Recover the amino acids of this structure.
């Protein structure tokens, strides 16, 4: 491609993605997208084949959370529609994923034929994706196709949301028409509002006795981790994180208090956050998960809340104040507090493994916490593994990925694939329940095919244990898989069964040493075992189901 030869529509789309940091595209080929796949095979963007289209979308989500943008390519109808749940999750959790869908050719569509994969008017697919993306375009006009690509990708970056790009089969190799490149309008803060918001917040911080920062997921999505550290270390403020924002702040830092999630929090984190005389909420979304099913006890009169486009201090609202500008300006304005960060607590005596002691979730998480290394990314699925994992202390920032708000089962195994492809210098520790693994665990075969070496810990309680705590019944039971034997099917993989602590210790030691293939540890948990947070959550949900609240 050059100024004299700007290339085809398909080439331009791939070039823009590559320039934006997307070096891999996940997906499953199909006839309407094969032309795009053939084009991709000739360029620097590498295709990563997955076992299903929905897992391709989860993988692109994991990639986006580590690289800033991810992409997948699928066929029309059966392929694209299979990604809807995962893309809805990316939309809910603000992950910029690019959905590329093939489609019947423009000339073919004019005759309105009843062709395979069609389910209604051809526009229906775009209209569906309009509901779960921030931009949805069809590249059916070569005159404007380049501009459509630029605008869609710019929207994904600005809003941190998925976008949908449909490319009809006969347009992949159609020449495009270059236009003067648009300079996207960059959002900016209102200078007066920013100055007033920072002045009021700094004054409150100066008078506060026990201020605390509550860090949320928007800080990660906007790339503000360094700015957060600068503010915390300048003002010497303790930091808690929401569950969706977990690991936005390095959890081995002495300022870190733990995860705050209302009644599901540890006693120390909950007390320090709720008794704070000034809570600085940065990038926090007040959803039901982060508030412990709305059990959070936070006084609005003691809160400074900064979101992406506004700051709210008590009854004062400052619109058009960007989160990034507010955090940076506040760090420049505050004075260091006299208190030093507390020294790390002394290590507690450790008796793991205890002979003949059955595995429990509490002991499992405590042992995993001691095994975490700086090069590990923890990717967690939905269920008790998620709530239990809140107590893990990852080493570096942004090393914990989960579908913590949208809570879609089946996220972890494929998302870990995307995360490891995006960050090949890291190793994934995948925490997944047996029910979630049965949904998307086939993607572990792709890990094996690519020579990746994640450690997969299956929380095996023979069913949907979270639902059992809400309302028990045979409908929560599932097939009892022998997960540790899947290497016979999935390719090179080490498998272990761990009913007790001795077996788990042996399996974990071997898995940590194995860097050539996936390792799966099937942890057989006692019936009824659950994390403390899960028991608290289940109590609240039981009341809802029974109509008591």
């Amino acid at each position: 491609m050059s100024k004299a030869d700007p290339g085809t529509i398909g080439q331009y789309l791939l070039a823009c993605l590559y320039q934006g940091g997307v070096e891999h595209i996940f997906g499953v080929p199909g006839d309407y997208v094969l032309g795009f796949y053939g084009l991709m095979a000739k360029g620097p963007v590498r295709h990563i084949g997955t076992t299903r289209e929905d897992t391709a979308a989860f993988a692109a989500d994991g990639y986006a959370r580590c690289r800033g943008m991810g992409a997948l390519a699928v066929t029309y109808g059966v392929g694209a529609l299979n990604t809807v749940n995962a893309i809805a999750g990316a939309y809910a959790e603000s992950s910029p994923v690019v959905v590329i869908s093939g489609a019947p050719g423009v000339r073919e569509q004019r005759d309105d034929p009843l062709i395979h994969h069609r389910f209604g008017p051809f526009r229906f697919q775009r209209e569906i994706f309009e509901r779960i993306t921030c931009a949805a375009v069809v590249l059916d006009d070569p005159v404007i196709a380049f501009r459509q690509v630029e605008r869609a990708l710019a929207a994904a970056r600005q809003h941190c949301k998925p976008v949908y790009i449909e490319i009809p089969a006969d347009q992949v190799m159609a020449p495009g028409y270059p236009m003067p490149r648009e300079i996207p309008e960059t959002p900016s803060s209102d200078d007066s509002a920013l100055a007033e918001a920072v002045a009021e917040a700094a004054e409150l911080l100066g008078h506060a006795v026990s201020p605390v920062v509550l860090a949320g997921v928007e800080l990660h999505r906007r790339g503000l981790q360094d700015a957060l550290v600068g503010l915390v270390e300048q003002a010497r403020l303790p930091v808690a994180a929401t569950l969706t924002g977990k690991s936005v702040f390095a959890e081995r830092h002495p300022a870190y208090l733990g995860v705050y999630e209302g009644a599901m929090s540890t006693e120390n984190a909950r007390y320090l956050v709720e008794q704070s005389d000034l809570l600085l909420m940065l990038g926090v979304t007040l959803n039901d998960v982060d508030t412990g099913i709305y059990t959070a006890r936070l006084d609005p009169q003691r809160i400074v809340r900064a979101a992406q486009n506004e700051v709210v201090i008590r009854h004062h609202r400052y619109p058009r104040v960007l989160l990034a500008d507010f955090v940076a300006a506040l760090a420049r304005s505050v004075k260091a507090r006299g208190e030093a960060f507390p020294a790390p607590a002394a290590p507690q005596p450790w008796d793991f493994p205890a002979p003949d002691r059955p595995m429990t979730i509490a002991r499992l998480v405590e042992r995993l916490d001691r095994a975490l290394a700086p090069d590990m990314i923890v990717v967690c699925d939905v269920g008790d593994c998620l709530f239990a994992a809140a107590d893990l202390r990852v080493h570096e920032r942004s090393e914990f990925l989960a579908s913590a708000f949208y809570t879609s089962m089946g996220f972890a195994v494929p998302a870990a694939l995307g995360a490891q492809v995006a960050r090949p210098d890291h190793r994934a520790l995948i925490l997944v329940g047996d029910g979630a693994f049965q949904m998307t665990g086939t993607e572990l075969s792709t890990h094996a095919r690519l020579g990746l070496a994640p450690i997969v810990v299956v929380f095996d309680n023979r069913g949907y244990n979270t639902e059992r705590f809400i309302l028990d019944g045979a409908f929560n039971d599932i097939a009892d898989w022998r997960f540790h034997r899947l290497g016979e099917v999935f390719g090179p993989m080490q498998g272990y069964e761990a009913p007790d602590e001795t077996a788990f210790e042996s399996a974990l030691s071997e898995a940590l040493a194995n860097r050539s293939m996936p390792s799966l540890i099937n942890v057989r948990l006692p019936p009824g075992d659950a994390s403390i947070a899960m028991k608290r959550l289940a109590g609240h949900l039981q009341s809802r189901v029974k109509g008591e609240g």
